[in-house]
Amino acid sequence: MAKIKPEKASEKITITRFGGIRRTSALTGASASEMRNFRISSDGSLEKRTGTKTLYDFGMTIRGVWHGALHGVDYLIIVAGANVYIKLDGQSEPTLRQQLPGSPTGNVSFMPFGGTLYLFDGNNIYRFTTLSASASNSFVPALGYAPLYGDCWSPSNMGPVNEPFNALCTRIRIRYDNSVNATTFRLPFGALSLDRVEVDGVAITPNSYVPGSTSFSIPQQHAHGILSVALTLPSTYNHRSSIAGLAGSLLVADANRSIVLLYGGTSQQQIAYSAPVSNEMMKECNRVFSTVEEPLYFPLENIFSLTDSAHPIHAVFRDRNRIIALNDRFAWALEFSGDKLISYPLEGGVGCSSPGGWTLCGNHPVTIQNSGIFELRFPSGESDICLSESLSQEIIELLPPSVLQNGILAWFPGRSELWMRDPTEADEGLVWVYKRDQKEWYCFSNLYITGFFELDGTIGFGTMNGALLVPDETSYSDSGEPVTANYYSQYLAFSSPEDFKRAIRTTVCADTGGQQLIIITQTDSRSRPCSVVNRQTDVPLYFEYSMNMGRFRFLRFVFNVTGDSAARIYRLSMLANP
Q1: Long-range pairs for 130-135 at CB < 8 Å and ≥24 separation?
Q2: What is the C-alpha separation between 105 and 107, in angstroms, rounded?
């Protein structure tokens, strides 16, 4: 009896939730092998990304941006190359205010502290002059707090160190108890100058002082009470270079202290942290030296190397009552014991392989490491264990090595997106984006970002050509250039890859915003496009088309949308006939 071969049934794939980029995928999955400028919405639809707009163009790499109020005046300050641009509230454009000496490269950081704005550029430490909203306001080298080096010293025998040197300056103060009515006072060092001498708070004129002498004298009529001297030491006591190269800053403020911690820059293996300066200490210092308030005080003993120059510190952030520091191989916890910061290593093999390769996603840090991108968790504020979860297992084989070496991160909480960019990549302007709540990756292009900066409640971008950009949620172009979006699916086999198929009927539900949507169906040997345009209405377009693809086992689809309007793809269905 002859056997009748059963007729093969049609096979159908329906996608209502589109997936992100994955290195591998099930043959019936909905993920992408490649995508550009589509983001995945919370409902799983594909949505063309919004655009960016240029705020200002400086023509050189933007190293840092600060926006805030000082003494009631709103400032926007940008460091581009060696230039400092400042925009006051009400002005239309930033104006060039000054040029900083030293290398014009490397990130800078700003820190409002104690009523003063500080700038750390990896060459020097500056404070901003803000006595008024004046066009002459600029950054000048910070002198910092002049410590009370000796207190209640004996005129002849001196005494113990009360407040050690400040690495920022060569100014110190000494207070003597002159109950013995002495006229000669020993100095611990030969001074460059005696800047002020007081008896019981009243300025006096000392006898002639020879620079470099280790003693000075006063007239007999002033030989009583408490004598205070303010002096400047010679350059041999200048320790500024030990911290001037630090460009990263972190404010550590709690119920016990408010200090600044420095790291990174050209002194990459070092950590420096300031000592608290009370209002009374600052008031006395200012009175003696007649200077503006500068509460920044870095005792020499508060500067230490945490690692070696071959493995610099790339990330420092707070975790509960601790500070976490990372280089490319290790993590340390730093905690205060009294006024001193002690460090100990954390277990877990985590690190940060790139300067700028970390950010906080909510309360949890994410870092770029040599083996991928990881979210870090610390089970307890006292534990020496650090847990890590890989976010990049689906794309790690697709990432160029330079991303892990140079990548920078930024967190956009409103969209639950983590952006990662290699600032040295100049071919496509590629940004890798992780949708955290959906655990999906996708890519944006034509964004040649070299730095991320907090700016007026959002994230600004510095670009390779020196422009400062901000997201523009009302536009679908990048500074006038329309955004083009592409989506390449993985190859699909329907339910029976062993069987050949020939004809395809495709249905799509989309809103093209009046733009042209091109849908390309590809097999291993053929590629067939179909294009459609719908009107700019609130009603999505539902359309269907059929085509003969020849014999095939696997196929994929490609979406391409051009133009400067919104576009969204909700659903795709493909029916394969034998």
Answers
A1: 130/70, 130/71, 130/73, 131/71, 131/292, 132/71, 133/73, 133/88, 135/95
A2: 7
Q: What three-state secondary structure class fits 396? A: helix
3-class state of residue 244 by DSSP? helix
Strands (E), 2-121: 11-15, 32-36, 38-40, 46-48, 51-57, 62-70, 73-80, 83-88, 95-99, 109-113, 116-120
Largest CA distance in the chain: 136
| CA pair distance 340, 342, nearest whole angstrom | 6
Q: Residue 325: CB partners within 8 Å, gap ≥ 6?
A: 263, 271, 306, 313, 315, 316, 331, 332, 334, 343
With a cut of 70, say whether residue 500 has pLDDT above it: yes
Cα dihedral value 23, 29, 33, 36, nearest 10 = -130
Backbone angles phi, psi at 401, to 5 degrees: -55, -30
Specify which residues 432 forms β-bridges with: 420, 443
| Structural tokens at position 165 | 């040197």
Cα-based distances in Å from 458 to 413, 415, 461:
10, 12, 10
**For residues 171 and 232, is the Cβ–Cβ distance under 8 A?**
yes
Whether residue 471 contacts residue 50, with contact meaning beta carbons closer than 8 Å, is answered with yes
Inform me whether the pLDDT recorded for 1 exceeds 50: no
List every span in the chain annotated with CATH 2.60.120.260. 11-49+484-577
Eight-class DSSP state of 554: -
Architecture of domain 11-49+484-577: Sandwich (2.60)
Please say whether the beta carbons of 74 and 51 come within 8 A: no
| Helix H or strand E segment including 151 | strand 148-153
What does DSSP assign to residue 402?
H
Cα(259)–Cα(339) distance, rounded to whole angstroms?
A: 11
Helix (H) or strand (E) holding 345: strand 340-345
pLDDT of residue 381: 63
Name the token pair of 340. 């001193």
In sequence order, what are the residues at sequence separation of 6 or more whose Cβ sits closer than 8 angstroms to the Cβ of residue 351? Answer: 314, 326, 327, 328, 329, 330, 331, 367, 369, 370
CA distance 310 to 329: 11
pLDDT of 109 reads 96
Distance of CA 270 to the CA centre of its chain: 19
3-class DSSP state of 139: strand
The C-alpha atoms of residue 250 and residue 262 are separated, in whole angstroms, by 7
Greatest mean pLDDT among 51-55, 129-133, 560-564, 571-575 lies in 51-55
> pTM here?
0.91
Q: How far is CA 409 from CA 269, 270, 336, in A?
A: 21, 23, 29
DSSP tag of 42: T
Report yes or no: 20 and 466 within 8 Å, Cβ to Cβ: no
